[in-house]
């Protein structure tokens, strides 16, 4: 893989790494929403919207844009 970028990208992730990454972010969000829901259901809805917006606007463009796995192997 030739790249003009100064950083080295990982060519391939194993199954354990894929499962961990694909379940960690939603898992953290689910635990947070559940904990807030136990205190106040309305605030948990707000937190859920905040987490989804943060994931869509920060995590996917910022972190996932640098990961070559989905674009190459689409899993």
Key terms:
75 residues; mainly alpha; single chain
General description of the model:
By secondary structure, the protein is mostly helical. It contains 3 helices and no strands. The protein has one domain. The longest helix is centred in the middle third of the chain and has 25 residues. The protein starts with 14 loop residues before the first helix and ends with a helix. The relative contact order is 0.14.
Summarize the structure.
This protein is mainly α. The protein has helices spanning 15-39, 41-62, 69-73.
What quaternary form is this?
Answer: single chain
The low-pLDDT segments are: none
**What is the 3D form?**
elongated
The SS-based structural class is mainly alpha
Average pLDDT confidence is 77
Number of strands: 0
H-E order? HHH
Helix content: 55-70%
Q: Topology of this protein?
A:
Elements: H1 15-39, H2 41-62, H3 69-73
Helix pairs in contact: 1-2
């Amino acid at each position: 893989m030739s790249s003009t970028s100064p950083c080295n990208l990982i060519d391939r992730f194993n199954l354990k790494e894929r499962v961990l990454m694909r379940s960690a972010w939603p898992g953290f969000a689910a635990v947070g929403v559940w904990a807030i829901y136990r205190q106040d259901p309305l605030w948990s809805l707000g937190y859920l919207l905040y987490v989804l917006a943060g994931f869509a606007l920060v995590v996917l463009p910022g972190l996932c844009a640098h990961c070559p796995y989905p674009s190459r192997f689409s899993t």
